[in-house]
Model the fold of this input.
Amino acid sequence: MKAQQDEVNDLVKAGYEHGFVSNVASDTLPPGLDEDTIRFISAKKNEPEWMLDYRLKAYHHWLEMEEPDWAHLRYDPIDFQAISYFSAPKKASDGPQSLDEVDPELLATYEKLGIPLEEQKALAGVAVDAVFDSVSVATTFRQQLADVGVIFCSISEAVHEHPELVREHLGSVVPHTDNYFAALNAAVFSDGTFVYIPEGVSCPMELSTYFRINEAKTGQFERTLIVADKGSFVSYLEGCTAPMRDENQLHAAVVELIAMEDAKIKYSTVQNWYPGDENGVGGIYNFVTKRGDCRGDRSHISWTQVETGSAITWKYPSCILRGDDSVGEFYSVAVTRGHQQADTGTKMYHMGKNTHSTIVSKGISAAHGQNAYRGLVRMGIKAENARNHTQCDSLLIGDQCGAHTFPYIEVRNPSAKVEHEATTSKISEDQLFYCRQRGLKEEDAVSMIVNGFCKEVFNELPMEFAVEARKLLNITLEGAVG
Amino acid sequence: MLSINNLHVNVDGKEILKGLNLEIGRGEVHAIMGPNGSGKSTLSYVLAGREGYEVTAGEILFEGRNLLDMSPEERAWAGIFLAMQYPVELPGVNNMNFLRESLNAIRKARGEEELDAVAFMKLVREKAATVELDDKLLKRSVNAGFSGGEKKRNEILQMAMLEPKLAILDETDSGLDIDALRIVAEGVNLLRSPERSIIMITHYQRLLDYIEPDFVHVLADGRIIRSGGKELALALEEKGYAWVLEEDAA
Done:
């Protein structure tokens, strides 16, 4: 038992790799939120009137709303007036025209994060839209993508360059009235990513965005909108890290996916925000609304997430299965250690006929970590022959952590089928001893067991990111043995 | 090669082994028999280095090295193998990968090259055939959903792959029907060698019909109270343990 205890203690103490702060001069708004803040952000981005109106509408709605408290999470109330809502690296012009104009320190930061920003260094076939605090810094592979008609740019640019697409789709999946954090995001979102894949085009490369919160006391409210037109395909990855700070930082993002007829969107997340220290001080509050709309028949949206960071995670990537024969998938690994808390899961709204959804959720809790799976499967009246299969597994390391499962199932169509399986297990002393007796070091044994537990989810990640996820998990478990 | 002197072991504060002595030479096969609760499994776990077994006195020397100073994996590297009474399930961990990681960890510790995939596959197929273990089980998760007999055969497969100097078989015969027992025993017999010592822990004489021991010991109340040849096992089978216990008390 002692080994288990040591392991747990070391898990808690394992350092946060990305906890450096970049010394870049920033253009940061003082803390506080009112109409002027929103006007400032909008003006800073030189936005058209309709965009400002959208923000203000969302802001006024937000003022009327109450912060949700139903999640299995404990944290002190967030003071929304103590947050700065805009921070951008200072630069001469409005935006860098090429990599040469980007602050070298910024590039060095990305280098440390292992993001291949320079095109020649880019991972084969990965285009990166890097978001540093609130402004998109550089976008690579734009031209190659433009050749096949794919639009991949920051959302601020899209507002100017493709206003008709943004106006049509922004808020159409997650309306500003949806929930407290989505309303806040709609009011103050600073930047984010826009992707449009035209009809019949299979995006020739993986698209990827790395977000990074650098400025102290800055909230990051990015907005992602991906539209896949008829018969198109895109695979998108987001990765996130943030420096170590004692204060809690708020991250309230909104991601909207729209898949038209026969289109497929694969959205993968590797989230490694700063989780706070071993005493639970600091760390990111991650309140995120992600939702995909399978709008056309036979469309397909697949969410894969590996969540190892954040002090608090509140996140339910969902699918609206509107089109007949549409498919929704959710594959998740969530790790909580130290004093991390996660309340995460998915929602599958079956509306069309013969819609299928698959949910595979793997929660790993160590030390004082609390991990909750919360999922909704709703079979609508018209969801003839709809199917869902849910598998929800929890793995406990040590005896002070917790795993909780809150499945909600609503069936309004008698031909629909819903299956739910759940297991909870512990990395047992038996398993560790067995592996060690066969010559494996304890930390290799832990890593082997945990990777085995997560295998079904890792199999869903694009290959190079699966390797990254495994590495991240191993770093998380590094020094797990005293 | 293995020398146990005056071994005292506590589990949860209760003394289980009370001055156990045992000498095992290279290439010898020893059977340890005894009534329930006599300390047989405790002995096997102490040899393998499991935590929770507190050695209060005595020593264990393995090839002249102090075994009690070594971690479980160091003992495995040194050539000690424990075939468990209840092999553990590792869901999601591929049986073949597990074998390969295990074999390479031990080869590395011995200063040998890691086996490449082709050589490994060839070896594992060959060894699996000796215990009649279906290829399909190699592709499944370690022991997950295996029958009792399949688990025991998988243990013997691991032993065949890892080629230990000292193999401890903890009630390998328990829960096996007669056919499975024969297969497992044949697998073990193939591994008998002048370089390999074997300790068989068992309740029953039955196993010893298949794997003939050089020595038989009776473990009772934490001590070896009688040692002999194969005939001792036959006498125990016929008369039970009572007479040995009585003679020991006298």
